[in-house]
Amino acid sequence: MYRDSSGRALTDYPRPSVAVDTAVLTVPADDPRLAVLLVRRAGEDRQEEWALPGSFLHEGESLADAVRRSLRQKAGLTPEGEPRQLHVFDEPHRDDRGWVLSVAHVAALPWRAVEPVVVARQGDVVVRPVDEIRGLLFDHDDIVERAADDMRTAYRERPDPDGLLDEPFTIRQLYGLHEAVVGRLRSVDTFRRAMLSKLEDTGQMSEGTVGKPAQLYLRRRT
Known about the structure:
CATH class of the largest domain: Alpha Beta
Distance between the termini: 49 Å
Number of helices: 5
Strand content: 15-25%
Order of helices and strands: EEEEHEEHEHHHEE
Number of strands: 9
CATH superfamily of the largest domain: Nucleoside Triphosphate Pyrophosphohydrolase
Number of domains: 2
Shape: elongated
Structural class: alpha+beta
Helix content: 25-40%
């Protein structure tokens, strides 16, 4: 059996429980502001309280698998791609049930992937604007704030890096999404100049829209 320099085995040290909590971020079509998905807590003492979807890590399970399981079981979501680790929240008294470390993750999903779940699980799953989040369980307010800051930083630098818009899209559609995520932007022309080098022109124009047809773009892959 392995022992460290003080003669202790690994089992001699107290060990915290490990949990995963995931901030699922989206932009609802009927309220274009950056929002987070919340689930109603199960259990006698927390029937009316809201939290991020999460779970304790099971034996032999990877963090990524725990995130996918918790999103499927708690929110009915099966997002594609690898969940992105955000931060480890390790304040010893963050959870009133005991010593629990939370490995927080963030997943930004298009509204078309989130809306069916909100409709199907009405009352148990909701989305709320991130800037209005107050009083979630544990330190989930802090997780939401950090997740929103992380996403906003990415959207200041690149055009829709999380793929919330279906391609192809117009500059004005991209501008509207970035305003929803980041907040008030400068003019559309200024935004266009900043983003054009990171987009690919399809050579096609928008159809069936009000006003003058506009050029359609794709996100540059390189």
